[in-house]
Structure formats: C-alpha cells, structure tokens
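Amino Acid Chain and Its Fold in Token Form
===========================================
Structure side: the spatial fold of the chain, written down as a series of whole-number tokens.
Position: the record begins directly beneath this header, with no further notes in between.
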Amino acid sequence: MTRVYAEGLGLQVQTKNTESPSTNAQNHPEQSQTFFIAFPAAITHPDELQIQYIALKQKADKKLGKKTIKLTKQVFDVQDSYRVSKNMLRLELNMPTLNNTNGTSNPTSVPINEAGYAYLFDLEHNALIKDTTADNIDDSKNTSRLARSHCYYTLRKAWHTPAGIQAWVDVFLHGNTPGGNWANSLQAGDTVVTKREFPEKIEHLRDGQALLIADETSMPTVARLLELWENPTPPLVVSVTQNAADQRYFDTVKIRSGIDGSITNRIDSNSERTTKNTVKDNFTVPSHRHRSAMLRTAFSVLNR
C-alpha cells in the first residue's frame, strides 16, 4: 500500500514468483505496477476511513465467495451473569422478537449453528447510560472506558426460543480491563449493543487432523467448535490458562456425535453419553500429570 486517498487506496503490485524475481522477455526484472482501488464512497473525515475500508473488504470477499464483516447493529437484553470457571464470566442474553419492529435487531440474523462468530460490543453504550443515571461519576472508570470503547467477544452459543433468541457470551476476566469492567458491571435488565459482526474462517477444519490451541480468550470459540464438530477425525486440543481452575470451563462441553467409531483416545468418565457409534461425546481436559504428554503428542503430529 503506497498511499491512502480520500477516494481510495494506492497499491504497488508485483507478480508473485516464489523461486526468482519476475523478469520480462529481455530478461530484465519486471517493474511493479501501481493500481488505484476506489472506496465505495469518498471519505470526508478520517473517522469514515474504517467504514469505507470495511465496505471495500466486503465487496472483495463477496467476489471471492468468502464470509465477511457485517456492519449490523444488534440489541440484546441482559438476563443474568455468573462465573462458569474461576475467571470466565457468562452473560446470558436475550433478543426479543419485538426488537425486530424498530429495525435495530433481527433474531433470525443471529447464527445458531456457527462457531467463532464474533460481535463488536459497544462498551460506551453502557457507560453513557450509567453515567447519565449516576449521581457521582467515577472519573477513573470513565478513563478506563474511553481507553477502549469497543471490544470483540465471541458468541459462545445461541438458540431459538418462542420469545426470541437466547445467547451466551463468555468474557474472560483479566483484572482491571475495559472489557472485563464492562462485563462485570452489567445487570439483569441492561441492554448491550453490538455494532459489527465478524465470522471466523473455519472451513479448513472439516478435513484431516486438526489442532486447536485455546488461550483464555479463545476457549469459547473452541468449545463451540467441539459442539458443532463435523470432521470425522476428532481434534487435538491444547488449552492454556494461567490458573488451572479455569480448565474446568470445558467440563460440560460435549463434542458433536457421529465421529468415527474407531476412535478410542479420549478419557472416559461416568457422566459421558454414548453415541450411536459407541463413541463417548464428553470432551475432557487432562489433569496436570497428563498435560505435558498431551503437548508432546500434539506437536509430534505437527512435526510429521
């Protein structure tokens, strides 16, 4: 990228050749070419750049047949919040069907069978509501909010109910952070607003041996991937948390039924259910004494 104009982007492009630089008929190195890629609409203020860039990306992804970012406002009601592990906070959200009448929310647009679907939450929405109703404004909290007014969180799970859409959004609490403070402050009856949606690319996980490495913030995505698993080969999963107690997050996660019945490399427990292929569908995180062996196994697969 050579320059950003109000009307678009300047790109300098050279033919890709992994073995040697591209040459012309006279055996001289080919000169790079310059292209101008126009925005859908010219920007008049720097704040508009991101919107026009996203619109350009949407257009390119559509031509390539890829999933892309959606600039969609959604409104959810907070029903409850509670810990599902030592530091993972679950937000129970609801999108009533009635929201559809004002054009801000559409329950049918919430993906219920997709893993890695992220929402950009508007943290400032809740900060403004609380500040206008509070008698005393905490300046230190305002500074934290302003430091990051938006934050992506993955849709852990969503399902249809007669009243609309029910959803879980799991937020890992890393101490005094804008996102963690926002999630901790939410109470039943509050509304949360999302401004953008981003679908992760997961099609490559449907074939072959997959290795999923989950840190504390990506555990919700891995949990949903397991529940919707379509690959006949179960994945290798490495879960990395600072506190061992947070490994319990996976205790209730069930891997999708229907995996190859010859698979026997999972740990049994009394609470597991058996699928029609006689495969246990609990996903179990090994204890500390097993974890180093699991890491060696996972990375030996990569080396092969």
Remarks:
- Confidence is low (pLDDT under 50) at residues 139-146, 260-280, 292-304.
- The CA atoms of residues 211 and 302 lie 8 Å apart.
